[in-house]
């Protein structure tokens, strides 16, 4: 039934628009389907889709978005032709539901909702029970045999209509309700009697008349017309316009209007309402899972006034509710419902979350959507649905959120224990390192190590952490900091080592002097219990039991047999599929062979980033670096350099040996110099002694080195250029290690990476130096090894000049942490002064309420694609314009973030490198990206 | 005489190359001219050009760059055909100079030089006196009647040939010379007798034979062949290749070889040598200016062993050297020389710097080039050459370096006094603010103000400066800092107020406690004399007299009548021409009406940047900001906000009134917050009291506010978004001021500018807020004024997202200071840890010598066109893709830098805004850019 529709607009010309003015949905006539989202909006398209496959949906119709545009193009006038079709559609609904608008016996009531292509705040919400009038309310009372409910609905409808449709101020109406309550001597709405409600309805209608000059409309069609106009008008409210501006939604899209017959689950014992999942959303188990209430409306299930009952006999039995399940009380309808479940699951080829109502034994489905599920359930359902033949591997994979895999790796709280601890929850910081940790409070690294030695699990709490806290962090079960974001030192180290971590809990006060921490009026001391959930950011001042996940126990620790664990087997299946479909290689950021072993067992294919500065973790190694930087005596310097070469060589040998031929990228020293220099009197005195200079001399040198903005200071290759001796010993150590392994027939071709390149001349300098050091070494030892030299792209200038830089680089690796800092002008260490508020909403300039979202994500967690991403694109384009096959990777924190990985996939990178525990997430994400890209093609 | 030349290369195929194998220059045959630079190299082209206009140039020939390419394409073999032509060319030279290669009477000696299109380090230097042999040296001795000179030349030639041409190690030769000296019992080379030198020549030749296995060549043609090969080989030395890589010079360009007959100014009383300018390079006066020496070689003039004499009678008379000028001693040749001067000046249409030699009354011109001249001379010559009809206005303008104008504005040292003070020069920092300053040493702002009140001129010396030093800087004659670069606080403020300033003199030690400063072993105390030259960076520990420039006295101070001053008139002429040709508008960065008045008298057309944070200069105003940021008592905050609104309104009123309808861009508050907060105990206590909180509470709040990298911290619009009340009072103050002026019939349409925009949502937020505040204010006052809202583009993300941002901006202004910091990842406050070394040369990775130039300029002075410039281009493109006619300016320090202004001109900006004293430079630069752009078209 395709016809071209012609409307005369106010200027007299005729406009050809979409074939229908209204699109019916329901059993009798159904004009749409899921693909018509742009025209019918999301809500309308889905209602039509369900109808199209024979699901019993309460009938209704959708006025398409094109009519909204027409309305706005014609001085906010509803076309007469449209209203004629609306009338016809109402008639059809009346026929189907055996009701009538305004009827004293069986009135037709409808809901009216807006529905754009995408959900949008600022637009008109739902108006329920439209069609209620002084007469219809009697009809509703009769029909439901519940006069109280009928008049309560009526008084709500009057207020909703006045406020939402007519834009009247809610306050005056609220005053009348309050007056009614005080007159009746009750404090709750529910205390009002039928008579009270009837009188209240009269008062409300009177107020409506006072405010509008009109009677409250007693013709449902007039109500409907006004509601349609209100939906269309809501498209252009100040708030909606501002939102569209921010989200870049064109005004021309418009909104649809959905008008649907109301059904009633509260028409007695043969009526009911409920929600259900077609499989268990917690465990993934293939059993129906849901709740229902007899003689109730949808909101009753949610409101919690009555306790809902399980739908299936089995669940009911588990809860000792024999004979009360829907399977038992409404066996016929239950079968109908499970048929719908099967049909829906098959149609959408996914687990469904279904809302239903039974009106006098007649089943209606009000909504279905793909059901949300826990990470474990996602994985299990994916594996089982493929086994069942419901979906193929790619589709199954595409359903899994990559963070589910992370959940499978993280230590976990016992859920019940956590729920019981809810009252001890003191705050929520940044969920910086997933997993659960519980232990006693430790405020210093030394204390944490002490507890560790005593065998007492502890949680390290610091204002922020520095490399000096490394030992303490390793000793602790988890880490909590007051300052710092998702890529702060604490967070990076925590994720690297799989430590649960919460960062940036700004409200927390740490008093090291008294050994106390407090938040608001809650306070604990060192030794008291504290727990944190790094997956959610929650912090508790109490103990909660945790355990290592099955996957960790089976795959890494080897304490259980992975073949005996269903969860391990599911994990392995998913990973095998992921590896089959992904194009991106996955490397890891590892500085020790210990990290590296974990990463390899989790599937890493090489090292994308070894940070030489992380090899200076211990006090004696730190001292060597201080000697090179600060000593005046050349002998001390020379000896220190030689010692550095020596220990680095050992570290590299261990690392390369573990890699056993896999690629290894080593980034030359890029220390945050201020963190590496002595702090405090004792440290300064000790260092001065080792440097054979006075404390005062050392302090003077440190003063000279001090920087206002160390992030933009003397670091990276700037150091290697001004102190070529540092580059020299690193290169020697790397190549000596490689030579030694090659002699032992272990292949190794190191990739040497130069950091913080801003100008090609810097790379020319370092590359020339590296090649010279290599040639000298090879001549010295009479042996050669092949190696390559590449660079980090981590400053905007490097990305912009990538073509020039590529002339001197064998590979690129994007350092998106630093690139984000400079591109956005945000220091990640200081971002918590404003970035969390940007995300959570700042004060709205129009209303003053705190819901103006400035920046949707944490750019240090998820790549800022339209800013930093553009530089990545320019860098890739520039680099490959010089070297067609230039190998390009990324080794920032974004290498473990699914959305960012997708971006890197789409932009042709060769690999991503992430911290060891992120490797499985990256493998899955890379596969999802490949699958998505195929779909797009 | 154009012929096509065919050469057979080693693979047997024939290559068609350039018409000649050698290009003659000189009177008898001259094949080239100035336009053939690519083929003949710069040197060769210029020699040919001079010959072509009849200037007497010693004859010779150029082997073109194409032969170098041919040589390299053919396994480093010189083509036989080439060597035949070289022989012929030598014969021609012999004929012209009546000499003969290797002659016992009158030997032909030649110089051999490399000469590429552009001058290039790493390439072969000059070999002089080629042609000397055991026989020719006798000929030279006879010819010059100076056996000592002849053998000294021979021994030098042997070493130079061995080293430069044959690549032998210089050290062994040096040892022989040392041995000769100790044998003769002398310490200087000049102590060696003719006999000593003869013996030394023998020893040196013996060593040559030992090292090479060959006799030292006694055939000048063999010497020449080897020298030609050496020049070509020098094109491919490691050093030259590395340099080309850095400078992007293609290997295919090759170098030319210049072979030129040597002439001798030391052949007795009728011979001489000298250098001269066709006009006075210091004053611009149209009189010949130069020096000469009778019976001398060129190097004698430079070496200073003998004192050269003036060439003109007039100059000689001034120096009481009657009868000794060339005009008097060699009247005929002097007339020939001045004829050459006139011819050259006319030909090149510019003042020439000429090197000449007279060999037995015959005049030779060895070199001419456009003469360097002082700023004053540049301006005077430009004006006078136009008056003379020698050049047109555009050409004259194009000759003036914009910095000349700056020189005309700067206070000046008396040149003689400065020369006398040379021994007190203690170091050279960054020439951050032009001009000369002299006074007593002041180490604190308070001290500087005290001296000012006593009427004692002083120079303020600080480690670095902050807003708290503003008063002291204004009180001082000049400012010197130990830290900080060309855009440090000190430098920016100094230039803004025309204060001479030297920054980053790192070797200086400041001891405030003892009131001393020292550098090396030189030390002075507060109250001692110190002087600095901000145009050169020189610092002196003594007094040197200074005075304000005539232009300042005439144009700004009005203490002299500009029409009575030649210099003022010249300045005005140049500025009038500049305004005639420029397209870019010139605005100024001004925060007070005092600055603004200066800028307007120097030609500014409006304000491009008023920094609201600079209006918080005094202690009481600072306190208001601290109250807003830190007070817990809402009443204190509210009162502070209202006081801020009040004083800002007054400041804006004064500013807008002075502008009198010219455009005014006001940038909302962007304070470096850490500089605005209290420092030290006293300040903290005072502030705490004003905030009605305890010192401890204040310290805690300050601790919370502390940032690791304030440059990337809580600033700019981030402040205005989280503290909308601050935006509110600023906008109210701006608009109230505008309304008041409009009421008094003074037009004013403020441009409100939002800083540090990273995301369009930030601008939407601030713009929505500004519009709301404006509407509320207009409603409140019943009056309206028009205004516009724009944004700074100063973060890479803003430039990359300019299309989105432009949707909400009426104008853009590039903040290239911050954009440079983030794009290059360099904090301008910390850059002196490495940036000066990058510019001056770091250790070369191959040789270890400190001549590897990483980055040629200070990117904070001259825009980094290939990095930051790309973002400016993307920003302009993006912005104008959204709004075709978007007004775009720039208000960073680069707005006053000529090279940067040229870039902004070429990229279609509408205006540049610079500090008041830079306005004339900007006017001239903009004109030069327009003229250059025309030439390119």
Task: Summarize the topology.
Two copies of one chain form a homodimer.
Chain A: E1 5-8, E2 14-17, E3 23-25, H1 37-52, E4 60-63, H2 65-73, H3 80-97, E5 110-115, E6 127-130, H4 136-144, H5 147-165, H6 170-184, H7 194-212, H8 220-234, H9 238-247, E7 256-261, E8 272-277, E9 289-294, H10 298-303, E10 309-310, H11 313-318, H12 326-329, H13 331-348, E11 352-359, E12 362-370, H14 375-387, H15 393-398, H16 402-409, E13 412-413, H17 415-420, E14 425-428, E15 430-433, E16 436-442, H18 445-454, E17 458-462, H19 470-475, E18 478-481, H20 489-496, E19 501-503, E20 509-511, E21 516-519, E22 522-525, E23 529-533, E24 538-540, E25 546-547, H21 550-556, H22 566-581, E26 585-589, H23 593-601, E27 607-611, H24 619-630, H25 634-659, E28 664-667, H26 673-676, H27 681-691, H28 695-705, H29 717-722, H30 724-743, E29 751-754, H31 760-781, E30 788-793, H32 796-800, H33 802-806, E31 811-814, H34 816-824, H35 835-840, H36 868-882, E32 887-890, H37 898-906, E33 911-914, H38 919-936
Parallel strand pairs in A: 16-17, 17-18, 18-19, 26-27, 26-33, 27-28, 28-29, 29-30, 30-31, 31-32, 32-33
Antiparallel strand pairs in A: 1-2, 3-4, 4-7, 5-6, 5-7, 8-9, 8-11, 9-10, 11-12, 13-25, 14-24, 15-19, 16-23, 20-21, 21-22, 23-24
Give an account of the 3D structure.
The structure is a homodimer of 937-residue chains. Helices cover 46% and strands 16% of the residues of chain A. The first copy, chain A, has 937 residues and is α/β, with parallel strands linked by helices. Chain A has four domains: 21-261, Dna Ligase, domain 1 (2-Layer Sandwich), CATH 3.30.1490.20; 272-373, D-amino Acid Aminotransferase, Chain A, domain 1; 411-548, 3-Layer(bba) Sandwich (Glucose Oxidase, domain 1), CATH 3.50.30; 587-615 and 653-671 and 726-823 and 857-936, Phosphoenolpyruvate-binding domains (TIM Barrel), CATH 3.20.20.60. In chain A, α14 (375-387) crosses α16 (402-409), α22 (566-581) packs across α38 and α37 (898-906) crosses α38. Chain A is elongated and about 105 Å long. Chains A and B meet through α9, α29, α31, α32 and α34 of A and α9, α29, α31, α32 and α34 of B. Chains A, B: Residues 457-537 form the PEP-utilising enzyme mobile domain. Chains A, B: One of its GO terms (molecular function) is pyruvate, phosphate dikinase activity. Chains A, B: It comes from Lentisphaera profundi. Chains A, B: It catalyses: pyruvate + phosphate + ATP = phosphoenolpyruvate + AMP + diphosphate + H(+).
